[in-house]
Automatic annotation (TrEMBL):
Keywords: Dipeptidase, Hydrolase, Manganese, Metal-binding, Metalloprotease, Protease. It comes from Halomonas aestuarii. InterPro entries: Creatin/AminoP/Spt16_N (IPR029149), Creatinase/aminopeptidase-like (IPR036005), PepQ_N (IPR048819), Pept_M24 (IPR000994), Peptidase_M24B_aminopep-P_CS (IPR001131), X-Pro_dipept-like (IPR052433), X_Pro_dipept (IPR022846). One of its GO terms (biological process) is proteolysis. Mn(2+) 2 binds at residues 241, 252, 417. This is Xaa-Pro dipeptidase. Its EC number is 3.4.13.9. GO terms for molecular function: aminopeptidase activity; metal ion binding; metalloexopeptidase activity; phosphoric triester hydrolase activity; proline dipeptidase activity. The gene is pepQ. Pfam families: PepQ_N (PF21216), Peptidase_M24 (PF00557). Splits dipeptides with a prolyl residue in the C-terminal position. Residues 9-150 form the Xaa-Pro dipeptidase N-terminal domain.
Length: 434
């Protein structure tokens, strides 16, 4: 670990201590107990599902896999961490990393997962805890005002957090490069996934989300969840949405590539979506309304569809008739941090809800951008039969070149996604070039 990262982490924790003290004082609380959470057992089995710790616990520790542990935060005192680390010959007990945060905490390595006793005063307990446990501690369970305030504290990232996100992006992009080579070499979806994991140096359960590895038409299933073991007979396209976690912080990158058997119209669409994404990224700055950026994506998609001959109407008509929404049903992006879809994206600074526009319910970020935010920028263009079919009978259907659309149907779709920090004077793209 470099001295510079040590220094950044110390400043991150100093700011976190001050922010918690301010919030707790405002809400009349003497402290808060954060539970990391525990993995779930499969029914009638002793095997556990994949696990990621509670985001506010990770905000202090960065430990995504530290289960059944507790962190007590009291203003003016060292944070007290109780780590569940029983003697066990079935599993390796928890160990703490050589990182700057460890020396700032009072740490107890415990053989059980019981919470620490709370001193007298008014406390809250946050996380996946039962009412009975909270009552036994004499603490308020997940009070809404405190949760909203702490969520808001995570929407802007410290310099340390941005450094972690940048490193996560570096590892993830190494995986993307290897995956592309596996695709062009004729690999099946499973082969591509293995290439990604090997190059990004991670096991599958450590991923911040299940990678999407969609060959051909599978690229048009937005959260495609399988890895076919046999390579397809033709290689039309690959859509790869793959991430990495570094000290708790998540990369979330998507790339699309044309295969050797792709229709000649497909590669220009990838180039068009990539150029569209770059133009939208160039607009990122403090004070920009993300909802307006999302609308700008649809306007640009209308232009691209018209330029590439998929529609025979104006770009404005493609938007107003709902054509662009059928070709891209998801939002432009979301907040990114300790969670892939990070908290506080749909509320303002005072905790007031900011729901997405009725026409764009999938948009996960609806607030004005501020320096320190990290967001994904991920425009897409897909051929999804169930979304396009309803347009055939209406006015929009007359403006769509159905023959051209059907030629591209087996190619699935395109998504180009980068992770970008908003800075005081613009933006900083954390995602390396492919």
């Amino acid at each position: 670990m470099t001295d510079s990262l040590d220094s950044l982490q110390h400043r991150h924790l100093e700011a976190l201590e001050a922010a918690y003290a301010q919030v707790l004082e405002r809400l009349g609380l003497d402290g808060v107990l954060l539970y990391s959470g525990a993995p779930r057992h499969h029914f009638a089995d002793d095997q556990e599902a994949s696990f990621a710790a509670f985001g506010h616990f990770m905000h202090w520790t960065g430990q995504a896999d530290l289960a059944r542990s507790w962190l007590l935060v009291q203003p003016g005192q060292r944070p007290r961490l109780r780590v569940h680390a029983p003697d066990d010959f079935w599993h390796l007990p928890a160990r703490l990393p050589d990182e700057a945060w460890v020396e700032r905490f009072a740490i107890e390595m415990a053989s059980d997962d019981a919470p620490p006793a709370l001193p007298s005063g008014r406390f809250a307990v946050l996380g996946d805890v039962s009412e009975a446990l909270a009552d036994g501690l004499g603490a308020e369970r997940n009070p809404e005002a405190l949760m909203r305030a702490l969520d808001e504290g995570r929407i802007r990232k410290s310099d340390y957090e941005v450094a972690c996100l940048r490193e996560a992006n570096r590892h993830a992009m190494a995986g993307h490069r290897a995956a592309r080579e596996a695709f062009l070499g004729g690999g099946a979806e499973l082969d591509i996934q293995h290439a990604y994991l090997g190059a990004s140096r991670q096991r599958e359960t450590a991923l911040p989300y299940a990678n999407i590895v969609g060959l051909n038409a599978h690229g048009g299933v937005l959260h495609y969840q399988h890895y076919q073991t046999d390579a397809p007979k033709v290689r039309l396209s690959l859509l790869l949405d793959g991430g990495h976690r570094h000290r708790g912080y998540c990369a979330d990158i998507t790339r699309s590539w044309a295969g050797p058997d792709a229709d000649p119209a497909f590669a220009p669409l990838i180039d068009g979506v990539t150029a569209l994404q770059r133009r939208l990224i160039d607009r990122l700055a403090p004070g920009v309304d993300y909802v307006a950026l999302h609308q700008g994506m649809h306007e640009a998609l209308g232009e691209l569809l018209a330029e590439q001959g998929l529609v025979h109407c104006s770009p404005e008509a493609a938007v107003s008739l709902g054509i662009t929404r059928a070709f891209c049903p998801h939002g432009l992006g979301h907040s990114l941090g300790l969670q892939v879809h990070d908290v506080a994206g749909r509320m303002d600074g005072s905790g007031r809800a900011l729901p997405p526009p009725e026409a764009h319910p999938a948009l996960r970020l609806t607030r004005e951008l501020e320096a320190g935010m990290v967001v994904t920028m991920e425009p897409g263009l897909y051929v999804i039969p169930m979304l396009l079919a309803p347009l055939r009978e209406g006015a929009a259907g007359r403006d769509i070149d159905w023959a051209r659309v059907e030629r591209l149907a087996d190619h699935g779709g395109i998504r180009i996604e980068d992770n970008v920090a908003v800075t005081a004077d613009g933006h900083d793209n954390l995602t390396p070039e492919a």
